[in-house]
Amino acid sequence: MRRTLALPSLELVGLHSHIGSQIFDAAGFEVAAHRIIQFAASVRDALGVTVAELDLGGGFGIAYTSDDDPADISEIAKQLRVIVERECEASALGRIRLGFEPGRAIVGPAGVTLYEVGTIKDVDGIRTYVSIDGGMSDNVRTALYDASYTVVLASRSSDAEPMLARVVGKHCEAGDIVVRDAWLPADLAPGDLLAVAATGAYCRSMASNYNAVLRPPVVAVSDGTSRLLLRRETLDDLLALDQG
What total of structural domains would you count in the chain? Predict the structure, then answer.
């Protein structure tokens, strides 16, 4: 901060912190706010500078499964404002402009990934493996973080009994799992479409051409109409850098 203040080309605006992700309440931010405002007070005392802005980062959780119960983001924002105002008053800092980054909370629930079912393999007494036309190239979060998702049959209705299934990808990897444990209709068949919810955050930005698999398109849907945002990749795209 001393170096920033000494450089005429830079303007010290405020302080930023980030404490993690999938946070469902304001309690963790209370500790972060206390520490960063204490730091802001020490900067004021040592350098004579009062920061104008405080960014508490992001990490607000969303519901990937029915077990997740995130708080309403507007309610968390109100709680954060009370926490920050209390800490600023305790440190005699006055009012600070408060910011945070609700990225996943906005775009996560907005995304749904559609897959076509390929091979279905039943392992007696264990589960049924359902392979799809995608996998860890378009959603690596399950392999990386053991992330959980909700998946449903999307192309038709079914009254069949549910079966315990594992939705897996096409990449020939033991970790190529999209949904580890899901209850899907027992009459699931090749060609059916599965929908995996809450894939709007991170999946596309972390997607790759692993094993030369082409990345899928991105389509915006609203009020019964659709619009192509990103087209499906082609083999020409994959070979575009080939100078052979």
Answer: 2
